[in-house]
Amino acid sequence: xxxxxxxxxxxxxxxxxxxETLVLKGIDVxxxxxxxxxxxxxxxxGKSTLLSIVGLLLRPTSGELEIAGERVDQLSERKRAxxxxxxxxxxxxxxxxxxxxxxxxxxxFPAAAPAGGISREMRERAEELLGRVGLKDRINFPAxxxxxGQKQRVAIARALMNKPDLIIADEPTxxxxxxxxxTVLELMREVNQEDGATFLICTHDPEIARQxxxxxxxxxxxxxxxxxxxxxxx
Length: 234
Ligand SMILES: Nc1ncnc2c1ncn2[C@@H]1O[C@H](COP(=O)(O)OP(=O)(O)OP(=O)(O)O)[C@@H](O)[C@H]1O
Ligand SMILES: [Mg+2]
Known about the structure:
The chain is an alpha/beta fold. The chain has a single domain (5-228), classed as Rossmann fold, CATH 3.40.50. The chain has helices spanning 47-54, 77-87, 103-115, 120-132, 148-160, 178-195, 206-210, and strands at residues 3-16, 19-32, 36-40, 62-67, 70-71, 88-92, 166-170, 198-202, 214-219, 222-228. The strands form 2 sheets. The protein has a 6-stranded mixed beta sheet with strand order 6-7-8-3-9-10. It has a 4-stranded antiparallel beta sheet with strand order 2-1-4-5, covered by helices on one side. Helix 6 links the parallel strand 7 (166-170) and strand 8 (198-202). Helix 3 runs parallel beside helix 5 (148-160) and helix 5 (148-160) packs parallel to helix 6. The chain is globular and about 50 Å long. The site of adenosine-5'-triphosphate has 12 residues, from strand 1, strand 2 and helix 1.
């Protein structure tokens, strides 16, 4: 079995003045290639902190992190940024689209920004991705003129632009109504099955968690449960 991600003894504490808060107390977890995993747990249990560490947005206080066979916890800032851009995709509760950019420009951004512009190949890939998320007719709409669910679908297309090994989603359906949430999840499942992309999705929505094959439960900074759900395979 090939691990895409291996986290060993991940601890994270935050310093607030005199006080130090230990938020992650030693997390050991592996994700295999192509897994679709939900991360659940009460508010404050450390889910977003763990996602930020796995997404190389935050450094662990101690512990080791390996993604795609590479030790990533010790990389320099510059190498972390590169790794993030090339290997990871992010979807957040708040889509973080660039409002003055069109849907297509937003999707192409992770490739276009480092290159300094949108090439024809990038445009074609962004168009294809927007087609896949059902927004072919919104390609040239500015982000501000899209609905919440449409923006989130653009955000998913953007996360896929650079063909990432791992897509990290923090409450991707948190702001959506039931139907848009279902569409967004369906889309992630499809990409997971068709492209073999690995997903780690943090969610408070039991319906979303139920539809993921594996469920990790955090409790007070520790991994409380690691379950493989039955009957989720299509
Ligand atoms: N920069 C920080 N400084 C101090 N404490 C922090 C910081 N970031 C997070 N924390 C604390 O870490 C704990 C876990 O936060 P985290 O955001 O990971 O929780 P969560 O499981 O994502 O919660 P939610 O479901 O509400 O999003 C919280 O008690 C929070 O106050
Ligand atoms: Mg959170």
